[in-house]
Amino acid sequence: MPTDRSTIPGKLFVSFWNICLDNMPEGTFTRYRVAPDDARLCIEQARQEERLLCVSEDDLLAPYHQRERKNHAALCGVLEGHFGIALSLKDFVSQDEAEDDALYSVNPLNCVRVRHHDRLLIVTCCYRLGEKDEGRPVFEIDPATVEFHMIAATSTPRHTKAVITDAPVHQANFRRARPARRR
Question: Which of 14, 32, 38, 84 has its CA 20 to 30 A from that of 48?
């Protein structure tokens, strides 16, 4: 069983279904499943301590992502109804009030990275065939398939010749090593 990291302060990132390479910590990390009650407690504690940041791969506010927004809302409903986990679209959105009118944007998945004591909770599920709607099949989330996967950094890498920076990596930053000559 992984070390109980719930007592260590750090951000808790929450994502539905998706993860990207940019989220992964440098060095070694652990991935383990979390019981629904433990996931609920982690989310509630992070929310109380203002360490919760929900992220999405999709722009849930875009008019062309209605299906994704509907799936997101459905998973929020299953989490609330079956596991007592209160998440909504508002948790995945940031508000900028610098102007007179508030500007809303979705917290992008690819902008977060698990570092130090941060953790990433990925919620996954499967669908089942539900009641037909006007002759068309309807797929709905099967609550029995909802799983919670936690990713946490366990150590930072030891670098002897490399320097870790927050600057974007570009192919031009690397030199190709010359192959050794055979004698």
Answer: 32
SS3 179: coil
Residues 6+ apart with CB under 8 A from 97: 103
Q: What is the pLDDT of residue 100?
A: 66
75 within some domain: yes
Distances (CA, A) of 72 to 90, 100, 105, 168, 171: 11, 29, 16, 30, 36
Residue where the block lists tokens 């900028």 = 96
Q: Which residue has the tokens 């992964």?
A: 24
Has residue 4 been placed in a domain? Answer: no
Domain that holds residue 129: 12-156
Closest CA to 16 of 151, 153, 146, 152: 146
Tally of structural domains, the chain: 1
Q: What is the CATH number of the domain that holds 116?
A: 3.40.50.11170
In our burial notation (b when 16+ CB lie closer than 10 A, e otherwise), range 19-52 reads beeebebeeeeeeeebebeebbebbeebeeeebb
pLDDT mean by block of 10 residues, the chain; 183 residues: 55 92 83 95 94 90 85 94 94 77 82 88 92 79 94 70 46 42 51
